[in-house]
Each structure stands twice: as structure tokens, then as C-alpha cells.
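I'll show a typical protein example:
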Amino acid sequence: MSSTRPYSPGDRGPEEADGASGTSEGGGAVSEGSATTAATGRQVRRLDLDGASAVVPLARDFARDALHAWGWLPAASADQRAASEDVLLVVSELITNACLHAEGPDEMAIACDGKVIRIEVADRGTGEPAPRTPHRAGRPGGHGMFIVQRLCLDWGVVRTPGAAGKTVWAELQAPGESTPGPG
């Protein structure tokens, strides 16, 4: 389900229309913020990764803390445990890709509206992520975007005209939510 749409259907993008960004000021290479958009119940947390080291475990820990705060962890069911593990795997893959192919990540955002978890990783890279074709399951490396494509409802890339870099986003379904059927 790869996509180059900047946002999934019905999504207004990384920022809600009321401008709530969930960002708080921090005093160092890593700052954490949290906000809830009252009208939508959407919760957003942001992690500043610019200049940080050990960014993959840092991002995974940040995502794990968000999942705890949102009641996904500790998991109450096998479905919830699997969904949480998928979120952490997608975080790892997106952050790793930014490290390997885009000069490292600048920021990660994770948002939840109760039905969908959205992960966004901003970087300064100019490349376009894509699953490797043909996918070679038996070979090491090159599986990141294939994994993202398989686990997520949708994913894509946002570029801001006139600005360097991009934001790669991916959305996963919350446990217990049913996938919309063909209509």
C-alpha cells in the first residue's frame, strides 16, 4: 500500500487545523512534548532528534512511552501486544532509513486518535523511500520500506515547497479496530 500522497484520506496533515502541534520547549538535544487536540481527541507527541546519538533506541523508547500513556501497554490482549510491537518495528525502520539514507532524522512525531497511530519522521534527505523491488527475503538489508508497506494501512512522503528534506509518515491500525472493507 505505498503511497506518495502527502496525507492519508481525510487527514489534514501533520498539524491539526487549530495549529496544535504538541511541541514543548526542551533544553538539550532531545525534547519531548505532548498535546491533545480537544476537538478530535488526537494525541500528539514529538521528539527532537537533531544532533542526538543512539536515535533508534531513543525513538523506540519514546514510542513505547507514548503507547504506555495511551493505554496500549501493557497489552491487555494478543492483538494489542502485536499492534504495539508493529508500531515499535515501524518506528525502528523509519528512523533507521533516515539514518542510512537521509543524513539522520531531525524529529519524530507519533499521534493517536484511538483508531490509528501515525508516525512521522522528518529528515533533510532528498531521496524518495520505496520498497526494494524485487524484494529478496533471503538477503540481508533492504527490507525497511517493505516491512512498513506490509504492516501499515498506508504511508507516504510530505515535502514542503522551498524547504530542504521531507517527512515520511506511516499509519497503523489500533488494536480491536476493523479494517474498512471494499465499498
In short: Confidence is low (pLDDT under 50) at residues 1-33. The longest strand covers residues 105-112. The beta strands are 32-37, 42-48, 105-112, 116-123, 154-158, 166-173.
